[in-house]
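Researcher: Good morning. I'm working through a list of sequences from a screen, and I'd like to move beyond sequence-only analysis. For each chain I'm collecting a predicted structure so we can compare shapes side by side. This is the next one on the list. No need for commentary yet; just the structure.
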Amino acid sequence: MLKICYEADQLFCGNRRNDVSFSHLEEEEISYYVDRFKPFDKAGAYGIQEWIGHIAVEGIKGSYFNVMGLPVQKVYSELKTFIKSE
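Model: Good morning. Structure tokens for this chain:
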């Protein structure tokens, strides 16, 4: 989940939630990913755009870009609304 907030004349806060489903991973696959990709700096400890996402993600309910870290479409939409209200 990502929360975006900004304040001008008014405060806006919005949330984006995603559900990501994975196939079963063997211990060897998890170890391979952790050893090679060092995912510890990522929310959820995986990068969907990396090897693990390619082989294990079965489905996403929500925004792919939010899973990557920034819901670009939502940010763009909110910025357009903000600019129009100025």
